[in-house]
Amino acid sequence: MGLKYQQKYRVPFYESDAFQKMRLSSILAVALQISGEQSTELGRSDVWVSEHYGLFWAVIEYDVKIIRFPMFNEEITIETEATSYNKFFCYRRFSFLDSQGEVMLEIASTWVLMDKETRKIDRVLDDIVDPYASEKISKILRPHKFKKREAFENPTLMTYPVRFSALDMNGHVNNAKYYDWAADMVDFEFRKSHVPSRIFIKYNHEVLYGEEIHAAMSWEGDVSHHNFNEGSTQIEIHWTEHTASHPF
């Protein structure tokens, strides 16, 4: 296992939703920020990786397990650890803890290094990952299997233009943005009584400025399946009913 890194964090108003819960897109964004802070502390910042090797980090998969969401103004602790890597993939864990040290949610993530010029996946170099003290493994962890777009029955369809505000520092759509697009397709009345308990996200191809996002959603019970641009990004959300009151 690798070196652990922690930061305390207080959930601000602008990262809270209509139910005073921290937005999932904000959770993912803050997780990336914390991992970036660890990288900088270890001398392997995004700038260092870019300047030395012409590469950048990209997340290609998330598995999010939610016990409960952090709430507005709650002070939490975010812990991360680069757990293992092989020749093409790096695996990192995040834990969001309450003030008592209890786990609220966990994120398992898969990362790759991409060439800034060719936009293709590059091999993981020991010089880049050695400071994290993560385990070098030979096997590739099995990814989640998503429902294919052609298997969607009576899908809900939406189109979103890719505007400047959706882009991140690498010039493609910010990965947290896809979850917002997916969740926005779910009926608000349903959202009043249900919360996500497990979320799988996979990014297969990057989408750039000026393109369009063609989103499709279908349901199987309380599981919503989301497909963007014929599989460039796939999301599966498991929803759980709850009875907590909401601040309306």
TrEMBL record:
Name this protein carries in UniProt: Acyl-[acyl-carrier-protein] thioesterase
Keywords assigned by UniProt, alphabetized: Fatty acid biosynthesis, Fatty acid metabolism, Hydrolase, Lipid biosynthesis, Lipid metabolism, Transit peptide
One of the record's GO molecular function terms: fatty acyl-[ACP] hydrolase activity
Presence of keyword Transmembrane helix: no
Record bears the keyword Lipid biosynthesis: yes
Originating organism: Lactococcus taiwanensis
Family: Belongs to the acyl-ACP thioesterase family.
Xref: PANTHER family: OLEOYL-ACYL CARRIER PROTEIN THIOESTERASE 1, CHLOROPLASTIC (PTHR31727)
All residue ranges annotated as the Acyl-ACP thioesterase N-terminal hotdog domain in the record: 2-132
One Pfam short name: Acyl-ACP_TE
Domain Acyl-ACP thioesterase-like C-terminal positions: 153-224
